[in-house]
Amino acid sequence: MHKxxxxxxxxxxxxxxxxCQNNPNSGRDIGIVVGSILGGxxxxxxxxxxxxxxxxxGGALGAIGGSxxxxxxxxxxxxxxxxxxxxxxxxxxxxxxxxxxxxxEEKRIRDEIARKATTADVSAAEQExxxxxxxxxxxxxxxxxxxARARRIQDAQERIAKAQQELAELExxxxxx
Length: 177
Hints:
Shape: flat
Number of strands: 0
Strand content: under 5%
Helix content: over 70%
Largest sheet: none
Structural class: mainly alpha
Number of helices: 4
Distance between the termini: 95 Å
Radius of gyration: 42 Å
Order of helices and strands: HHHH
């Protein structure tokens, strides 16, 4: 009787525990299951008539403990979400502040130039920009021409290799091979 009752209790708790997986009260339910099993086992050690009492008492205590664990887990998760939200807000505020500082620095530099620059300074700056742009264009043209030469050399090398293969094939055919 003792083993049969314990087996039935274990089967019922396993069935009950699979139903708890998507349950919002899963902490309490898991506590009931674990408490019932442990209480039933403890009651079985006392005697056959104590199995159900032990399971009931263990289930009740397990429900209390499981509910408390679930409540603490949810509180920790909520606190972590709050910390994550606050961190993201802080990062956004920092990025905004850095962008504002950059804009202010650029404006300060522009204002400084505007106060000191003359028409001759503007003309000199524009001439220097044109000189550097011309130098860049010449470098780009030179680079493109060198790349074109390199491609032509590679094409010629490929043609040479192909012609050498064909020549070797013809010579092998002429020699009877």
